[in-house]
Design goal:
The chain is α/β, with parallel strands linked by helices. About 45% of the residues lie in helices and about 15% in strands. It has 18 helices and 13 strands. Bound molecules: cytidine-5'-monophosphate (2 copies) and zinc ion.
Length: about 475
């Protein structure tokens, strides 16, 4: 196996090494009786579980799925108490590998978060890009590593579609405007298997499902000054450039021809430049988009990004079974339930953004933050932080706090690729600062999270402000 500094290992080698690890994982699964599948409550975690559960069903292996917001020692103890032959952790587990091993849990971990340890741990097969010189924030997601494992278990190339939904759900395409690294291999596999197509397009939510003027009106990501939230302005904007809004029914983005689409994109760029607001950035508006060609046109499931938002609307609100059932192919009851949850989720995101805009961000030397208290759910405060950050000063990372139901304080942190290049590592900064105040955290260089005791918020802030300052200055002077 090749272990090397990030960036110095080519993608062929990373791919070959991960596939080897996935084969070990598949062997461990083949030797065991029943399997407990433990995954994360977001789009990537749901799709990862969907991939593995489908692959296990196809092999006739008994399995039970379980979802967690994060893995703590208590939760690991409850997992150990289930007493299953083997636990397959997807989209989480790497950060707690030592604790999993210490509890004597036999496990396969298919994850992409920065590992708590890169050492070999007894009884555990660990599949993670960071072990082989890869990057888990951009090159492969939890559902991507689960897909490699599924492919080692059998012929499961069609599941690449779910793996792409997971990668897009984790915003792995954000920095480059397209999926890169191992994710590229996965979309190519999907394209060959006839389940995916991809190409440049507008990235707004609702291409498949909403009238074009509604797609503009409800655009929060990116937020379009002068159009977002203003139906009349959106209608006149489209009329001015000669777009027919409807005939027998409202026209959606997918109903427009190439020329009409190009006209809208050009007009949006002109509008964005004229508005002079820094939050309007071209790479948020256009980029590569991914179509699930076996899903019905005009449904959320046809577009990887809309699919991932639909999934986030389930498990983040305690409805993980609904999201999983959609991943497993339920296109009736579970899909209807998920759609109801989706409209509430989109409203919650809009309310969250509005709240932060009203209250503003508090500036420290090296970070900026807001504290939502009870007003934004701890399970979506990270998404809101990411959206607000798109329209904010991007020279400092953003932190967000929200009260968690267990009395703890949830922290979410987001950075930019430029800051990461300058030395920022939010995973290390957040986990070290949380550790100092009796909390736990982890994640990726560009995005991380933690839970901490609520009374330690200000101490946590001053520690992380210092660490981020050190990370950025150290590399600048290097
Ligand atoms: O838990 P997990 O790894 O699945 O989540 C990754 C998180 O990183 C997502 O919440 C995503 O929003 C965030 N991210 C980001 N910017 C990027 C890449 C990922 O905010 N460029
Ligand atoms: O919760 P949030 O979206 O802010 O999480 C950002 C990233 O940090 C995700 O990849 C998540 O899995 C990770 N995280 C973590 N440990 C925590 C909280 C979040 O590894 N306690
Ligand atoms: Zn993930």
């Amino acid at each position: 196996m090749i272990i090397s500094r990030k960036g110095s290992v080519n993608i062929e080698n990373i791919c070959a090494s991960l596939k080897k690890l996935a084969e070990y994982g598949a062997e461990a699964i083949s030797r065991s009786g029943d399997v407990l599948v433990v995954s994360h409550i977001d789009a990537d975690g749901l799709t990862a579980a969907g991939v593995i559960c489908t692959a296990l069903s196809r092999r006739g292996i008994d399995h039970t799925p379980l979802f967690f917001k994060q893995l703590t020692k208590n939760e690991l103890e409850s997992i150990a108490d289930v007493g299953s032959d083997l636990v397959v952790f997807t989209d989480l587990g790497s950060g707690m590998i030592r604790e999993i091993s210490a509890l004597g849990i036999k496990a396969v971990i298919a994850d992409h978060h920065r590992p708590g340890s890169t050492e070999r741990c007894g009884g555990i097969v660990h599949i993670n890009p960071h072990l082989v010189g890869g990057d888990g924030a951009t090159q492969i997601s939890g559902s991507g590593t689960a897909f490699l494992l599924a492919n080692a278990l059998g012929k499961n190339e069609d599941l690449s579609a779910l793996a792409v939904v997971g990668a897009v759900g984790d915003l792995q395409d954000l920095s480059s405007g397209r999926l890169v690294g191992l994710n590229r291999r996965i979309i190519e596999t999907g394209s060959r298997a006839g389940v995916l197509s991809f190409g440049p397009d507008i990235k707004l939510f609702g291409k498949q499902t909403r009238p074009v003027f509604k797609m503009l009106e409800y655009s929060t990501d990116p937020y379009i000054p002068g159009l977002s939230g203003d139906e009349e302005a959106c209608i006149s904007f489209l009329k001015e450039i000669g777009i027919r809004l409807g005939g027998e029914r409202w026209r959606r983005w997918i109903d427009l021809d190439q020329d009409e689409r190009a006209r809208i994109v050009s007009a949006l760029i002109r509008h964005g430049l004229r508005s002079g607001i820094p939050g309007f950035r071209l790479e948020r508006l256009v980029g590569e988009v991914y179509t699930l060609t076996r899903e019905r046109e005009g449904t959320e499931l046809r577009d990887a990004s809309e699919f991932s938002t639909l999934l986030n609307a389930t498990a983040r609100y305690g409805h993980s079974r609904t999201g999983l059932d959609v991943c497993l192919g339920d296109r009736d009851g579970a899909l209807e339930d998920a759609r109801l949850l989706l409209s509430q989720h989109r409203q919650n995101l809009l309310n969250g953004i509005k709240l932060v805009k009203e209250r503003g961000l508090i500036q420290l030397s090296n970070i900026q933050y807001f504290d939502a208290g009870e007003d934004i759910l701890d399970t979506i405060v990270g998404i809101v932080a990411g959206m607000v950050f798109q329209m904010a000063d991007r020279s400092k990372p953003i932190l967000a706090f929200a009260s968690a139901p267990d009395g703890m304080l949830k922290v979410s942190a987001r950075g930019t690729q430029d800051l990461v290049r300058a030395g920022l590592d939010l995973s290390r900064a957040v986990s070290a600062s949380a550790g100092e105040v009796g909390g736990v955290g982890g994640g990726h260089t560009i995005a991380a999270g933690a839970t901490i005791p609520p009374q330690s918020r200000d101490e946590f802030l001053s520690i992380i402000d210092r660490i981020v300052g050190e990370q950025l200055n150290r590399n600048r002077s290097a």
